[in-house]
């Protein structure tokens, strides 16, 4: 964690700021970081991250957490972040090496396209709330 550039966009499931297309410039300039670790160790590791971005409501397609909201693999998280920031082909390329990769995009396409179409973290959060309410989640 100490080696992460201080201005890089770091994906963190515990951040209170949602990733949005507005993060594209920072990611291009200082990098996009995904930390590959077990969900069991995530709390300990991500507590040290100060300027992270969380991903909005998305559904995992990986075999370990299939169907679970938010429990994305590192590859899913990276691809989702790239897609939201406008790098759709790069996201598809990353997921193409996994049998379930295309399914992740299919399951989340409406969400990803919506998140990619707005300009700010606040708007991403509003979309997320709308999607979750539509699926019966209490917010």
**Average pLDDT, all residues:** 90
End-to-end Cα distance, whole Å, is 32 Å
SSE arrangement, N to C = EHEHEHHHH
For the report, how would you describe the main beta sheet? 3 strands, parallel
- Rough outline: globular
Low-pLDDT ranges: none
Give me the number of helical elements.
Answer: 6
Which strands sit side by side, in order, in the main sheet? 2-1-3
> Which range best describes the helical content: under 10%, 10-25%, 25-40%, 40-55%, 55-70% or over 70%?
40-55%
Strand content: 5-15%
Number of strands: 3
Q: What Rg do the Cα atoms give?
A: 14 Å
Structural class: mainly alpha
Short description:
The protein is mainly alpha-helical and 139 residues long. Helix content is 44%, strand content 5%.
Could you characterize the architecture of this molecule?
It is a single chain. With 139 residues, the protein is mainly alpha-helical. The mean pLDDT is 90. A 3-stranded parallel β-sheet has the order 2-1-3. Helix 3 packs antiparallel against helix 4 (88-95) and helix 3 packs parallel to helix 5 (101-116). The protein is globular. The chain has helices spanning 24-30, 42-46, 74-84, 88-95, 101-116, 121-134, and strands at 9-11, 32-33, 52-53. The termini are far apart.
């Amino acid at each position: 964690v100490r080696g992460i550039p201080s201005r890089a966009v770091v994906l963190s499931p515990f951040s209170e700021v949602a990733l949005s297309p507005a993060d594209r410039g920072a990611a291009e300039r200082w990098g996009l970081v995904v930390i590959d670790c077990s969900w069991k160790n995530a709390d300990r590791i991500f507590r040290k991250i100060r300027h992270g971005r969380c991903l909005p409501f998305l559904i995992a397609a990986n075999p370990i957490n299939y169907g679970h909201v938010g429990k994305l693999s590192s590859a899913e998280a990276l691809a989702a972040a790239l897609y939201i920031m406008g790098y759709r082909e790069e996201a598809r390329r990353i997921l193409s090496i996994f049998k379930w990769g295309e399914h992740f995009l299919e399951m989340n396409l409406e969400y990803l396209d919506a998140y990619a179409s707005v300009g700010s973290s606040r708007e991403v959060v509003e979309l997320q709330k709308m999607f979750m309410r539509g699926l019966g989640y209490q917010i």
